[in-house]
Amino acid sequence: MIRKLFGFICMLCFAISSYATHNLAGEITYRHISGLTYEFTITIYADGNSPAIDRREIEINWGDNTKLDSINLNNQTQITSNPFPIIKRVWKATHTFPGPAFTYRISVEDPNRNANVINMSNSINVPFTIQTELTIPAFAGDENNSVQLRNDPIDRACAGVKFIYNPGAFDPDGTDSLSYSLAPSRSGRDVIAPNFSFPQASNSFSINAGTGDLTWDTPVQTGIYNVAILITEFRRGFKVGSVLRDIQILVEGNCNNTAPAIFANDLVCVEAGKRLITQIRSSDSDVSDQITLTATGELLESPFNLRTNFVVQNATNPVNTRFEWNTICDDVRRNNYALSLRAEDNASARGSVNLVNFKTVGIRVISPGPKNAVAQAIGKSISLNWENLACPNASGYYIYRRKDSSGFVSSNCIAGVPDGISYVKIATISDVNIRSFIDINNGQGLVPGQKYCYLITKFYTDGDESYASNEVCAEIEKIIPVITNVSCLLYTSPSPRDRQKS
Fold it and tell me: What is the DSSP letter of 445?
C-alpha cells in the first residue's frame, strides 16, 4: 500500500511539473522615448493549457547593475488552437539608463520551457531566456530603435519535407542594415541550454544572413525543437543593437503534404515618384489544398500603409495577387525594403498538417538622376550644366569623368555609376541647388584634342546615389601653331681670294 501511494505521489508530481511549464518562444524589442529612456516590449508565446499561464509577473534585468524589476502583464491573445492553445503574452516597461556611449544587455529569465524539447536536455526544468542589446550613442540624435518582428516564432514542419521560416523583421529607423545568424537557445543570461544542439537535418540547417530565411533541409526526427535567431543591426558599419529571438518548431510525421511554392522576384526596383506594381503567385502541388497568402513588413504599417496595398486572394490554388506602392521622394534610401511573404495550405482539411513557405522580396527605391545635362569646352576646361527636376531632398552631386564615351545608360536597379566602365569620381558638390561645374582638372587644364565624357548623380545623407544623368561629352580643341612671318638671311659662299685672305 505504501509503495503504491509513493508511486502515485511521484506520478502526480511529474504531472504537475509537466503541466506547470509553458514557455515556447519569444523576444525582447525596444523603442527610444527620449534622452536615455527606452520602452521595452517582452513577448513570450506560451502553452495555453498550462496553469502557469495565470502568472502575470516576470522579472527583467536591465544590464546596468540596477536591481531586477518585476513587471506586470499588459495583454495576452490566443493565436492558434492547433495542436494546442498558444497564447501570445506581452509585457511593456520603460527604463532610464545611467549614461550614453555604452552597450547594455537586457534579459529575461523565466521558468520554464515546455517539456520534451528534443535538442536540449530536460527542457521541462530549463529556464526560458531571451535577451537584446542596446547601444546608446555618445551624442543625442542617433538613438536606435530595435528591429520589429511580425511573423510569430511558432511553426509546424513535417519530417522529410523542406521547412522554411522567416521572422518578418524590419528596421523602423530605415537606416540600419540587418544581419541574421543562428544561435543556441539559452537557459540563463550567460548560459546555453544544457546539451543544446542544432536540429539534425538530412542535408542542412542554415539561415540566409541577408534575408533571414531559415531553411531546414530536411527534418529527420519528429518532435519539438527550439533554436534562436540573432538579428544584428549595423549603422554606418557599426553595430548598434541586436535581438535574440527564440523560436519553436514542431516536426510531425506521416504528413502526406508539400508546402506551397511562392513565385516572386527576389528584388524589384522603382524610381521614386512612380507607382510600383509587382506580381506575386503561390501554388500547391496538392491540387485540392487551398492557399492563404499573406505579407508582413514595414511597408504595410504606418505611415507607408497609406500608400501601399497588398491584394489578398485566399481560398484558391493557385493564388495570384500583387503588391502596389505609390512611392515618393522621401522613400529613397540605401537599404532595401523587405516584404515578407507567407503561404500556408489547409491540408488539415484532409487530415494532414498545414505547411508554410516563406519568401522575402527586396524592394529598392532609387532617386531619379539629374536631367538634361550638357557639356561645353571652354579653352582647356569643360563646363557642365544640368537640371534637378525631381527629388530635391538630395544632399548634393557627384561628378564622374572618363576619356571617350562609354555608351552607359542608367537602367532598372543600377543606381550610381557602376564599376567596370572606367568612370572616376572627380568632384563632390555638397549643395543640391548648385547645378553647374567647371572641370579644369585640378587647375592643370585638360588635354587638347582629347574627348572627355561625364556622368552626374545625386547623393543622400545615408550614402545612397540616384540614377546617373545622361552621358555628356566635349572635346578640348587642339590648337596647331601657324607661321605668320619669316625672316631670311642670304648666305653666299666666299670667293677663292677671300678664302686666301682669311
Answer: -
Q: Which three cell numbers stand for residue 53?
A: 499561464
Contact 237, 179 (CB under 8 A): no
Cβ(266)–Cβ(361) below 8 Å: yes
Burial class (CB in 10 A: 0-12, 13-18, 19+), 436: exposed
Helices first, then strands: H and E counts in the chain: 2, 33
Distances (CA, A) of 354 to 123, 284, 458, 467: 26, 12, 49, 44
User: What tens digit of pLDDT does each residue of 371-399 get?
Assistant: 999 999 999 999 999 999 999 999 999 99
Residue type, 444: Q
Model pLDDT, residue 495: 52
Give 96-129 as a DSSP string. Answer: E-S-SSEEEEEEEEES-BPS-BTTSS-GGGSPEE
The pTM of the full predicted model, rounded to 2 decimals, is: 0.87
Which three cell numbers, joined as nine digits, stand for 207? Answer: 539561415
If DSSP codes are grouped into helix, strand and coil, which group holds residue 68? coil
109: cell is 529569465
| Cα atoms found within 13 Å of the Cα of residue 255, Cβ hemisphere only | 26
Strands (E), 171-310: 177-183, 186-188, 191-192, 201-207, 214-219, 223-235, 238-252, 261-263, 267-271, 275-283, 291-296, 308-310
The answer to whether 280 and 322 have CB atoms below 8 angstroms apart is yes
Return the residue matching grid coordinates 495555453. Answer: 48
In this prediction, residue 481 carries a pLDDT of: 57
Q: What percent of the chain has pLDDT over 90?
A: 84
Q: Hey, what's the cell of 326?
A: 505609390
d(CA 120, CA 195): 5
Q: Nearest CA to 23 among 183, 186, 164, 184?
A: 186
Query: Is residue 468 within 8 Å of 454, Cβ to Cβ?
Result: no
Would you say 196 and 168 are in contact if contact means Cβ atoms under 8 Å apart? no
